[in-house]
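Notes to self after the call with IL:
- keep both proteins in one doc
- input above output, always
- annotate only the second one for now

Protein 1:
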Amino acid sequence: MGTSTSGLDFGHIDSTIRIQDDLYRYFNGAWLASAQIPADRASDGAFIALRIEAEARVRQIIESATGSDEATKIGNIYTSFMDADGVNAKGASPIKEDLAEVDQITDLKSFISTLTRLEARGTPGVFATFIYADMKDASTHILYLHQGGISLPDEAYYREEKYADIRAAFLLHVAKMLDLAGVADSSELARKIIDLETRIASHHWDQVKDRDVTLTYNKMERDEVKALMPAFDWELYLRDGAIPTVVLDSVIVQQPSFFQGLGSILANFDLDSWKAWLKWQIISCGAPYLSDEFVIENFNFYGKVLSGTPELRQRWKRAVSMIEGSLGEAVGKLYVEKYFPAEAKSRMEKLVAHLIAAYRVSINELEWMSPETKVKALEKLDTFNPKIGYPDKWRDYTALETTPDDLYGNLGRIVKFRRDFELAKIAKPVDRQEWHMPPQTVNAYYNPVMNEIVFPAAILQPPFFGLEHDDAVNYGGIGAVIGHGFDDQGSKYDGAGALNNWWSDSDRAAFEARTKALIAQYDELRPEEAAEVNVNGALTIGENIGDLGGLTIAYKAYQILLDSEPSPVIDGLTGEQRLLLSWAQIWRAKVRPEEMRRRIATDPHSPAEFRCNQIVKNFTPFYEAFGVSEKDGLWLEEQSRVSIW
């Protein structure tokens, strides 16, 4: 049995498994047993299938785009990327001038000057910067300073014994890349680079602390920022990087102790180590856009070693990714015209209206929240802004310059365009129409500073959403995405998008007691793909709350839609059962063991099997829909079930 009239795909069922024991493997088990992860991917599943489809559609759009200035820019980037012979003929020559600049560094001052000029062309710096709405005043933009300077996924990779093999492979990789670029004494310099990055990493905040929006909001004025790193010449950094000096008047320092630690390293400036580190940054960042030997060696470490992916993606796929990251909305405009019908937007608007109504009912019925806090929660809900399909205003790419015969140069021009676009936001009102994903992205996001949920066009298709799908299937799929406005971090923002404690102390304590119980549940879980590691409940708590809240609200919204009438039976299933099977359907996924280990260490999302099963274990309507009893694998004692929204 394949896809039904309801929109459920019954072709992956494992009938040897009972729903009551394992919803995830019941509905996806046959696929899990037979599916092969594409050789150029670290994972596969419902999301990946749509991404592969979107990638092919975007390729067709790119290759057929003509007649406009934007089409010319798109074509230039694509042509420059696809010219493998031309790129290979250049070898390492595109980065020679950048490397030569590093050779001229003689002291900390000239290092800072060179560093900031290279950053302006795309080389990563020793810390990260970005411009975003002020989290306590969402009407204004401000500069954020964020920890950086390391090349492995997380600070733990530099210190924990379980990553020793990865560190050994990284040392060989760095030396090989230096060799390819013609840098002498590559083995010795590789050791210096890793030693320096290890010292930098020792000052990094860990993943759990770093996702706390309260701890990472540290507003400082110019003199305070300078006092954090007295050895670092901020005025030189701004001037030689062509950064308007006004940006440092008021900034958010996300990890103050990192900058203090970095300052202590810079105060004892090791010229040879920092020059080697900066050369490594140039080479590693540029590698995907250089000749094949750089591309392959870069993939061998970051693709094979870190994620277990056996095969490099085809050249056209990598070209598409570059265009997505540079002219995403220009491509998105064409994608929407071709693939996103107006009826889809209209139906999603109705679905979201029901979800918001369900949130209102849910908040009013919460037994653990006081009336005063409910008023604030409802005020936040009243300003909730759904964005569906595509932006109302498209980005202007007039200032972006591209050429058809200079891939590495195009990279630098793209970085400059993006940078200029962001810097121009300083001292200007926040554009609440801006999107942070192009329409052809298979994903969705909640932006707490704008209090908005964003559904790009490409995710609004089966299995997440279908114009011909039964409402229950759409609610159990795309409808359940809405839960993140009130997760552990999103709930710290008010309706205006400001980081503002609108909770009473007792209500916050009740909320956190529930979140702690959910953290404890997830801490016990181990994914099938890497059974030796436990999920980090504290790292994933935001997404777990979002998943639980999302399914809860989607279910209530479906009940509102039914308006006290019994749900229609389709395919021999009630609407409630179809909604829950749709929930299982969207999480279908396989992940390579290496990639799973990396995700457990760094990804705030839980493995797919737990996004499905652990949520329904806490969801009493699941027990009612499928007659789950204490004899079943998904049974959880009622007093142990976590219910938040």
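Protein 2 (the one to annotate):
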Amino acid sequence: MELPHCVQPVVLTGRSLNLDSFISVARHHAPVSISPEAMEAMVRSRELADRISREKRVVYGITTGFGDFANVAVPEDMSAQLSTNLILSHAVGTGDPYSEEQVRGMMLLRANALCVGISGVRPILVTMLVDMLNKGVTPVVPQKGSLGASGDLAPLSHMGLVLLGKGKAIYQGVEYEGAKAMELAGIPALDTLVSKEGLGMTNGTCAMTSVGALYLYDALQAADLADIIASVSFTALGGQLDAFQERMHTARGHKGQIQVAKNIRLLTAEGEILTKSQHARVQDAYALRCIPQVHGAVRDALAYVKEKVEIELNAVTDNPLMFTEDEAVISGGNFHGEPMALPFDFLGIACAELASISERRTERMVNAALSNGLTPFLTTKAGVNSGYMIVQYSAASMASENKVFAHPACVDTIPSSANQEDFVSMGTTAARKAGLILENTRSVLAYELLTACQAVDIRRRVGPWGEGLSPAVAAVYDKVRAVIPFMEEDREIRLDIEQIEKLVRSGELELAVRERIPEFV
């Protein structure tokens, strides 16, 4: 995977994270610290929470129970137990655990939100989260159990258990009981939380946002790959370049479409095969001709998702919020995941579209009725050999599976907490299934690239358009051929699939292209 633009230490202020800095910490373990201003803001906020508790003001989550128990008063001497019990009782997730990078992202986002200083928690909670990030203690958090409203209660409770020396955590690649992991890392665990801290730790969209942000980052890479791989297929099929003229796309005006058309022009420039294949047809089928319109729409969708994600990376999403300037404590719904649920469903749908059009290009290359003169299934000895026949089957299977996963999670809701929480977002489900779609999509793109390189070699044999590739397409082709030879006769293609999957996910193809075309975006 390609690194973010610059992996540097990250200073938490509550308002300064972006997608690159988030990835730097979650995936690449960039060191984290807390700004002095954030520490001061958290101290002031905690002082207000203590004052409210002493004065027995009626404030949700400080002097009352939670959810449908909001009308149940809690004595001051039980407020610490109230917060601790919230973590213990809400850690009810199940299923496979989130990846370490996903949980690191959750910890980072929770720490950053608390740094704003309107959540009423002690600074020590944020200090502990930062220490866990820097020393590599990662809570084990099950993936299933969040409705995405009242925040990601179950996942964040599992995360919070480790601060109390409970639950489980990964340290230096080994799973331990939470207390042992913290001990080995030299981080003292807490005996208890205090008033408001249970909500401060668990109310929020940190799980869905972390998961979705990581998938978004990889989807942006997939969009680049889609353009790159499409240019190889376009070359093999002798596509018609008129449809990519700049004036065609500025006439419509969509930014992503204009960008993709430019990318294809850059990627295919100076290629002999394409130069000689021009005017062979009046126009191509949509899978070739409409690459800018489809890939461009995906890029515009991802830009929208990124805009929303970068807002949420710096959002305060717990409840209630405490404003020290006038000591107002306001109960609201910032924990609700709807602002992320829609974008993450959109993310999944956009990725599914990349896979669908990619599979159609693969089909055109293996289908002799559509391939503009290539051999059936890209074989050299048809009949005895099946060639790339079943490569397209597998790509079609994944593209179709994506259509099932692409059904929006956010259109579903189910009431909870005795109908107090009567409309939920399912945002965490949206984020998780976007990842399933993305992984299928990257595989479909890999299958297209494998097929396209075989098709290029067949094209060179059958003519009549010469053999030369553009510099960018040649660089991509050479990367593939360095690990996967031309298939003269059927062989154990499983091994080729393993290699192409690895190459597509490595970031090497994008780097090879950018070395030759700095303007590629």
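Annotation: The chain has two domains: 10-204, 212-516. The first helix runs from residue 19 to 26.
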